[in-house]
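Why do we bother with holo predictions? Because pocket geometry can differ from the apo form. Keep that in mind while you read this record for zinc ion.
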Amino acid sequence: MTGVQRRTFLWGAVAAGAGALLPATALPGAALAEASPGGAITSRSVGAFDVVALRDSTDTFPATRTEMFPDATDADWRRARRADPGAFGPGLAWKLDFRCYAVRRPGGRIALVDAGVGPAGSPGSTWAAPGVLPDLLAAAHLDVADVDLVVLTHVHEDHMGWSVSTDGVPTFPNARYVVQRTEVARLAENSPMRDYLIVPLQRTGQLHEISGEVRLAGARGSRLTAIPTPGHTVGHQSVLVDGHGRRMMITGDVLVHAVQLVNPDVRYALEADQAVAAETRRTLLADARRRRTTLATAHLTSPFTDPYRP
Ligand SMILES: [Zn+2]
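The structure, written out:
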């Protein structure tokens, strides 16, 4: 499906209610899970880093799950329902979260991986409920000024929404915005996403294009590494967090539904290259099982998945 068809397909969808807002007195660290109604904020530590899952939005997808994953079998769906029961709405409805991850490093610097649906008026808000990321960052005591890295797994509407304001001002004034060069290159000169995201970041000198696997940050034996995971889009990347024997992969849209977790061969209708996407998924899942890597996903209805656990 081309970008134009994708946009046309998604436009006109109905947006439902936004995710639950937080009380003003939320606590840092593990206590956040209890302070955040419905699990809008959850955290896990990986080596010297604290990874905070932030659910920007939650909604029902504007097409049925069988339209989006046409080759999934009944057995695949049964296994997926066991893996992620929250993804199953009435009938064939696909319920999904829209999540970002903040990685808090020693010393207080923060890397944000993906930037959600964004506010009302953002491109993503035309088909998904507007997000609440600024409230979540405040509740988690994560200061926008401390974000020095924003890593975008790919340039789709629901992953970059809070990167810039609707009038084109970068939300994170001290951040480099890291995107794969091939991902920027695929956007046509006059594409709406280039105008909305890329042009404002180029204007302020904050766009940082990378090629291939790149180490982004490190502290006390823990590392943050961008790793190409193509298929969903040509320049899709994931972020590996590792240190002190723990590994976590922030996977963007390598898998968008638990049906692709239980069977990586299941294709998603909106993948740019379905064969490459399936190969990326098989490799990533096999590696995660072998090396005991937690997956931090954007759209499953719980933030952390341990595929190595039976
Ligand atoms: Zn997505």
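The chain has ten helices and 13 strands.
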